[in-house]
Write a structure and sequence with these properties.
The protein contains 6 helices and no strands. The protein has helices at residues 3-28, 46-62, 68-77, 82-97, 104-115, 118-124. The chain has one domain (3-120). Helix 1 (3-28) crosses helix 3 (68-77).
């Protein structure tokens, strides 16, 4: 099994557990089940990033995943395969090495810089 296949396997275990834990918290708190569907995996395809990004933000909000570290972990768990998988592994390694709380705005900026559709920016000019 290659390093990337192992990463995909590890990440596939994290994602369902993160989502299930969030939904479980809502049910235990007497809140309605989530009405926003899980946006699924993001594989690094720039042309799909904006739709996936909107979906993951709605998913996290509707599941009341509010803590910065929880949001970052859930997002990394949804990055799989290709460039996205490599990025997720790199960030996961950084998180393992650094026990400090992560900065949400810095994470979002880096994620958007890495995965936003560059052709849209060129077309806008």
């Amino acid at each position: 099994m290659s390093e990337y296949e192992q990463t995909d396997t590890e990440m596939s275990v994290i994602q369902p557990a993160t989502a299930a834990a969030a939904v479980s918290k809502n049910v235990q708190a007497g809140l309605p089940k989530n009405m926003v569907l899980d946006p699924g995996w993001f594989d690094g395809d720039w042309s799909k990033f904006e739709d996936w990004w909107r979906g993951i933000r709605l998913f996290l909000k509707s599941n009341r995943v509010n803590g910065t570290d929880d949001r970052i972990t859930a997002i990394l768990a949804h990055l799989r395969g290709g460039v996205a998988g490599i990025y997720a592994q790199k960030k996961l390694n950084e998180l393992d090495e650094d026990n400090d709380t992560q900065d949400w705005d810095e994470f979002v900026k880096e994620l958007k810089t890495t995965f936003s559709d560059k052709s849209k920016a060129v077309d806008a000019e």
